[in-house]
Amino acid sequence: MLKNSKSSYGWVAILVHWLMALGVFGLFGLGVYMVELTYYDAWYKGSLDLHKSVGITLAALLLFRFGWRLLGTQPEPVAGSSKAMNRVAHSVHKLIYLALIVIVTSGYLISTADGRAIEVFNLFAVPALPESVANQEDIAGKIHFYAAYGLIAVVVLHALGALKHHFIDKDKTLIRMIKPLKDD
Questions:
Q1: Is 3 inside a domain boundary?
Q2: d(CA 178, CA 108)
Q3: CB burial class (10 A; 0-12, 13-18, 19+) of residue 110?
Q4: 184 has a pLDDT exceeding 80
Q5: Phi, psi of 80 (to 5 degrees)
Q6: Residue 141 domain-assigned?
Q7: pTM of the entire structure?
Q8: What is the count of structural domains for the chain?
Q9: Residue 184 within a domain
Q10: What are 41-95's pLDDT values in tens digits?
């Protein structure tokens, strides 16, 4: 089952979800590591290039995810879940998407503040905007930093919610994000 159904996510949504999760945690860890490096550290440039390339890949995956979500079916909440908890879950998902948009946008603005394009794995380049604003790199850097930490906080809340569903509520919320379930 590649596509979502009314009761379950399909393989495409599941794969994109977990690839993005790996990308977010990997980029966060790399970002925390990178800010401790100095210009003379051996991996200074390599870590920046990797962070930018994976960030652009994550941005493309996010755009794909939005399209997939817009064009496809979305599973309904699991039976027995309260409307209040469904609203909380929906709000958490919106916060995750908003933080991701802010992070990839600010990351792009940091990387292109000097007018240079972003090389993506030495395969292609994402061009810079023709104009920049004063202190663009610093302003975007602060936004990027706080949005990244905010995203991690919201993702931890998201993961705790999934674990609550699995171990306390004993419903299929987490299972249907691991493998497609047959319609009841």
A1: no
A2: 31
A3: buried
A4: no
A5: 90, -10
A6: yes
A7: 0.94
A8: 1
A9: no
A10: 999 999 999 999 999 999 999 999 999 999 999 999 998 889 999 999 999 999 9
